[in-house]
Design goal:
The chain is mainly alpha-helical. The chain has helices at residues 5-19, 26-50, 59-76, 81-103, 108-128, 130-133, 155-178, 180-190, 192-197, 202-228, 238-251, 256-272, 280-294, and strands at 139-140, 146-147, 150-151, 230-231.
């Protein structure tokens, strides 16, 4: 295997992720779990916006669907964790497909408005459909996953679960992006009209992007619900969608490694600045602005070939999804 800078950095991050938890305090370990969950969310957005070039500002909606689906099954029907995961991913995938239908003919700021509306509608439904969601009171008592008598009650055990899931999703997304379907997505991002002329079924490619992106976000939502053990509508506001977008841009658009790096920096940086009290968000915003001015392509632009793409992506007839 060729030792590229991207491979070396990714391997170093993976090794660090396996060693560092043993040196973390209880609170720091909680932060590490949340970083991994938000890395999944950022990767899901990158799948849609970074690789397919479709703007989404409503990813908190997919996050909500995955969380509530899993939470309802776990608390009201005592469903095993694997069943909750499968259901959360399936329901969120269907919602992604349904959102893709009206979004097929839209792009740019029009698509952004549609996705914002999607997220806001789901937030309002979570508040008002009290029979299903328990309204503003939320859902509590969500059990941690387990296998027989073994339960992941400790944060360290849950960290390993989330880390394994994140690694597996990264591998699967990497394989997809290198396939003909992935080349079709990147061709769609570069030039939709040209992609269609070269044999890419644009509508099918867009549906693929929405469904895969939604599925990963739903998986993240399921992991989140079973970790915090209590969810309510305020956990899935527009602020979350914007935060995920910032993570993607800071880390690097169209980069799996960038999704992980962006989630780490944007989630951990405010935690390290809390000693500034009322001013820490001001400093945080300034640091993010500075990063964007100095590194407009994200932190992974410091690593040669970090996106795995060389020049403009083309898709021939064999790339037709």
């Amino acid at each position: 295997m060729k030792l590229t800078p991207r491979f070396i950095v990714g391997s170093a991050l993976g090794l660090g992720a396996m060693i560092v938890p043993f040196a973390l305090s209880g609170y720091e370990l909680q932060v590490a779990v949340m970083v991994a969950i938000f890395a999944l969310l950022t990767l899901s957005l990158n799948m849609l916006s970074g690789y397919a070039g479709m703007i989404s500002l409503g990813h908190a909606g997919f996050f909500l669907i995955g969380s509530y689906t899993s939470a309802i099954l776990a608390t009201r029907f005592a469903a095993p964790f694997p069943v909750s995961v499968a259901a959360a991913v399936a329901v969120t995938a269907v919602s992604g497909l349904l959102l893709a239908i009206p979004a097929l003919k839209l792009s740019g700021h029009f698509l952004a408005v549609i996705t914002i509306a999607f997220g806001l509608i789901l937030h309002l439904l979570a508040i008002n459909l009290e029979v299903i969601t328990n309204g503003v009171s939320g859902i509590s008592g969500i059990a941690r996953p387990g296998l027989g008598s073994w339960s992941m009650k400790s944060d360290l055990a849950y960290y390993w679960l989330v880390l394994v899931v994140l690694a597996l999703v990264c591998v699967l997304v990497s394989a997809y992006i290198r396939s003909g379907y992935g080349r079709a997505l990147r061709a769609l991002r570069d030039d939709e009209i040209a992609a269609g002329c070269m044999g890419v079924n644009v509508n099918v490619a867009k549906m693929h992007a929405f469904v895969i992106s939604a599925s990963i976000a739903g998986l993240a939502g399921c992991l989140y619900a079973h970790y915090v053990r209590y969810i309510n509508p305020e956990s899935f506001t527009l602020d979350i969608s914007i935060r995920i977008l910032i993570m993607m841009v800071v880390g690097g658009v169209g980069s799996i490694l960038g999704s992980v790096v962006g989630a780490f920096v944007v989630y951990v940086l405010p935690e390290t600045l809390r000693f500034l009290n009322d001013y820490y968000y001001l400093v945080f915003g300034f640091v993010i602005m500075l990063l964007m001015l100095v590194l407009p392509k994200g932190l992974v632009s410091l690593i040669p070939d970090a996106t795995g793409a060389k020049g403009t992506t083309s898709a021939g007839p064999g790339s037709r999804p």
